[in-house]
Every structure is written in C-alpha cells, then in structure tokens.
Write a structure and sequence with these properties.
It contains 14 helices and eleven strands. It is of the alpha+beta class. The strands form three sheets. Strands 4-3-6-5 form a four-stranded antiparallel β-sheet, sandwiched between helices. It has a four-stranded antiparallel β-sheet with strand order 8-7-10-9. The longest helix is centred in the first third of the chain and has 27 residues.
Length: 431
C-alpha cells in the first residue's frame, strides 16, 4: 500500500510513552497494578466471528490502571474502565480486520522495532519494557496487538485518504489571519476531552454524559485520568493536554469560550462537529517576544511644503481617487498610480522596530490591503498600503505548521467516520 502523506500529528496515540506504561517508559520496574478486580471468564464480545475474551478485557483494564497509576480503583472506575477497554478492543479487532482486507501485515519484528524506537527515546529499552510487562501480569502479545492495530489503522487511513485531504490556501490564510489577530493577546495552557456523538439521535445522550463528566471534574476528578479514559481526541494519550495555544489556534466554538474559563477550571460541554468538547484551562499569560513584519507599498506625489492650496487639493484628490481605485488589492497599486500621474513605491518588508513611530501607529491596526489617510513628508504627500502583516515569535506557528494541523484535523475526522461506518456494518455481539 502506498503511503502518500505521513503526518506526525495524526493519531498521536501511536506507540508513544503516552500509550505505554508511564513508569515503564521512564525505565522503572516497580509498577503498581490493581489486581483485586475480577471478571467472569469467557467471551466478552464477538466481532465478525472473532472473539474478545474476558482475559483480553482484564489485560486492557490493568493496562489502563498502570498507565494512570491507579492502585485502588473504585467499583465505578472499574466498570467504566471495563466499558472503555471493551470498546477499544472492538475497534482494534475491526482495524486489524480492515488491515487484513487490504493485505497489510505488520509483523512482530516490525512492531518491536517501532516500540523500541519510542522506548529508547525515553531512556528505556525494549527488553526492560517487556520484562516489566510480564512482571506486572500484562501480556506482551496483547501489548503488541494494540500497537499493531494502531499502526495498521494509521497506515490504512493515511494511505487511503491522506492524498485526498486538500487544505485550500484560503483556509490556511483564514487560519493565519485568525491566529495573527490574537497573537498579541492572552495565551492559554489548555487540556481537552472530546466526547464523540456517533449519530444525531445519540446527541442528547452524549451531552448528558459530557455534563456528568463536567460535574465530576468540578468535584475533584482528575482531568488527566478522565481524558485518558473517556476522550476520543488524539490528545487522550497525553491526558488531554495540548499545551500553550493562542485563541486563534482553537476551534472557533472553543475559542469563543476559553477566555471565560477561569484558571484551574473546566468549561461546560461545548458543541463541536461530531460531539462535545470539555476544556480545562491550567494557565494564562500574555504573548511575549513577538516581531511584526509589514509589507508596504506607497503611492505618492512630490509637493513642496510651501505649495499653494489649489495645488495641494489637486494632489490630495489624485491620491484619494487612486486609493479608491486600488480597492484593497496591492497588485493594482503600480497600474493605478501611473494612470493618475503618481509614483508607486515598493517599501518591501519592514519590521515594526524599523518603522518611524508615526507610520507604525497609522498602519498597525489596518487590515490586509488597508491604507492610511494622506500623510505629509518633507518631500510631499503619500498614502501607504499595508499589503501583508506577519507576526512571528516562538509561540506563533508558521503557515506550514498551520496547514499541517488543519490536514491532521481533517484526517482525524475522516478516520472517525471511517471507523464508525465499519463498526456500523460489522456483526458485533456483546455478552
């Protein structure tokens, strides 16, 4: 199968220490696993004639508890973890069956190479990881199958749909403009929980479930643990954490809410495409160390300072007529200036620190393609056009990064729909 476009952000759960046991990834062998709960032995579900045993479910629950360092789970936590485990195992069976349909085989050796690379990046070894799994009562084969399903699914989705996802220049431009507009404003340390609503008919039930989660979070439940168990977002692998962001980087529905959430608090459920989002805000700070670069053009006319009023009004009229004819399109400036007997000057790209204060004040709040009023210099009169405005800094993503992020969002949405359709058509019997 040809992999047309690979994105590091897509399905961020793929074989990372966020997926594995955190203590194991750090090279520690003393892993506390809750061993006290029991399940009835037998088959928990059948997926297209392929069984999921209670052993499989028990392994996954212990894995979830180890990952979250839960040593004394309540009955409610055990029940929810079992539901989550069974649901994840059903998805994995379907993903592996889809891989088989496409004749995509990922051997144990390849899985081991993938895991080994991730573990080594965190200072551990593959042998140590597998030893710790065995000593904790966790099956290495089950762990491999989880990784195998995740990697196979990524390759199928990227291979089938990656090249079809097209992020238009206008969409990137819109996102850049949105981020640039918020660049000088507050940044937020944000975590997210995405609760998927599979069908419109289930939306009310999904909302009710999301509201229950919010109540529990506000009562003291861990956001990280809740995200890892309940969230359908790729960020679930890191406890829902997506780091420091500008409001403009968030979905518009979320951006409209995030500033109203107090530090240390969580939002009410926010309706987004495909379900509901719960946002937690861990911190806020103002943007820093930003540089604004303006691309500027001018139309001008030399005019002596002692020119009479009639001549001044004539030049002003020429400038205003030209401004109207440019219509916010910088590409028209040279042609329009020449037609009106004026000079066109390309000032190029200039950083804010290199502009004189008067001109900076005049252009700083202009939209792209906007222009100043008529301004006087020692040589005459001019109007300056702000053709492009770029804010840069360590916290500001580039246009390429924004395009990649939008591509990942689209691909993740397609992946959810794809799996939902496969699941809808599958023969699934839960016991």
């Amino acid at each position: 199968m040809k992999i047309s476009k690979s994105k590091t952000g897509f399905l961020a759960k793929i074989v990372t220490c966020g997926v594995g046991l955190a203590t194991l990834c750090n090279g520690t062998s003393n892993v506390a696993i809750a061993q006290s709960f029991q399940f009835n032995e037998g088959v928990s579900a059948i997926v297209n004639d392929v069984p999921i045993t209670s052993f499989d479910v028990r392994q996954r629950v212990r894995y979830l508890f180890a990952r979250q360092n839960i040593t004394q789970p309540t009955d409610e936590i055990i029940a929810q973890a079992a539901t989550q485990a069974l649901d994840a195992l059903i998805n994995e069976r379907l993903q592996l069956q889809e891989a088989k349909r496409f004749k995509l085989n990922i051997s144990d050796a390849e899985v081991d190479r993938i895991i080994d690379g991730r573990v080594k990046a965190n200072g551990g070894t593959l042998q140590q990881l597998y030893s710790d799994l065995n000593s904790s009562g966790l099956s290495v084969a089950s762990y491999r199958d989880t990784v195998r399903a995740e990697v196979a699914w990524q390759r199928i989705v990227v291979g089938r749909f990656g090249s079809r996802v097209k992020v238009s220049p206008d969409r990137v431009k819109e996102a850049v403009s949105r981020i640039q507009a918020s660049a000088n404003k507050t940044q937020y340390s944000v975590s997210e929980i995405f609760i998927e609503s599979p069908t419109p008919e289930e939306d009310a039930q999904t909302l009710k479930g999301a509201q229950t989660l919010v109540q529990k979070l506000r009562a003291g439940d861990s956001f990280k643990t809740t995200a890892e168990i309940y969230s359908y977002a790729p960020s679930a692998a890191t406890g829902g954490n997506i780091g420091w962001v500008l409001a403009g980087e968030l979905r518009p529905e979320v951006a409209a809410v995030v500033d109203k959430v107090e530090t240390g608090q969580v939002s009410d459920p926010i309706k987004v495409q495909g379900g509901y989002m719960i946002i937690g805000v861990a911190g806020k700070h103002e943007a820093k160390d930003l540089t604004t670069t303006y691309t500027l053009k001018q139309i001008s006319k030399n005019l002596a300072a002692n020119s009479d009023d009639a001549n001044t009004r004539k030049v002003q009229s020429q400038l205003l007529a030209s401004k109207s004819q440019v219509k916010g399109n910088c590409a028209n400036i040279e042609r329009v200036a020449k037609a009106n007997g004026l000079s066109a000057n390309n000032l190029g790209s200039i950083e804010d620190k290199d502009l004189n204060p008067e001109l900076l004040a005049a252009i700083s709040n202009l939209p792209q393609g906007g222009s100043t009023e008529i301004m006087r210099t020692k040589n005459g009169l001019n109007i300056t056009f702000m053709c492009e405005k770029v804010i840069s800094g360590e916290d500001i993503p580039t246009a390429e990064q924004i395009e990649d992020n939008l591509h990942d969002q689209e691909l993740n949405l397609i992946a959810r729909r794809y799996l939902r359709d496969i699941r809808r058509d599958a023969a699934i019997v839960k016991r």
